[in-house]
Amino acid sequence: MEPQRTCIGCRVTEGKSGLVRLAWVDGVGVAVDPEQRLPGRGCYLHPACVETALRRGAVGRALRRVVDRGQLADAVMDLTTSIE
Ligand SMILES: [Zn+2]
Predict the structure, then answer these.
(1) Using one digit for the tens of pLDDT, what is the confidence trace for 10-25?
(2) What is the DSSP letter of 1?
(3) Among 26, 30, 68, 79, which residue carries the largest CB count within 10 Å?
(4) Which residues surround ligand 1, an ion (CB under 5 A)?
(5) Please, which pLDDT band fits residue 77 given cuts at 50, 70 and 90?
(6) Which of 83, 72, 69, 73 lies closest to 25, judged by CA?
(7) Distance (Å) from CA 10 to ligand 1 centroid
C-alpha cells in the first residue's frame, strides 16, 4: 500500500501521491519537493490546503523551523505553478 501522510492543513491522512511535500533546505528555507525525496525534514499537504496551513503557521511548526513569511510565500508560489 502507498505510504500514508497527514496533511498539515486539514489533518486528513492520505496517500503520498495525493499530497505535496514541502521540505526544509539549508540556506534556502522552505522548498517544494515535487519528487518527494529531498533529504531532511518535510511535511505534506493538499494543494487546496496551502492557505489554511499558512494561516495556522502549520508549515513552520511541522518543519520545526522559523519560517520567513516572504520566503514561504515564494515557495508556495512555486507550488501553485508546479501543480498546473
Ligand atoms: Zn488537506
Answers:
(1) 999 999 999 999 999 9
(2) -
(3) 30
(4) 7, 9-10, 46, 49
(5) confident
(6) 72
(7) 4
Q: Which CATH architecture has domain 4-82?
A: 2-Layer Sandwich (3.30)
- 44 CA to centre of ligand 1 in angstroms: 9
Q: What is the largest CA-CA distance in the chain?
A: 37
- pLDDT tens, 29-57? 999 998 999 998 999 999 999 989 999 99
What element of type H or E holds 25? Answer: strand 20-25
Q: How many A from CA of 57 to the centre of ligand 1?
A: 14
Residue 64 backbone class (left: φ over 0; alpha: ψ -120 to 50; beta: rest)? left
Tell me the CA–centroid distance for residue 46 and ligand 1, in Å: 4
Confidence (pLDDT) at 37: 94
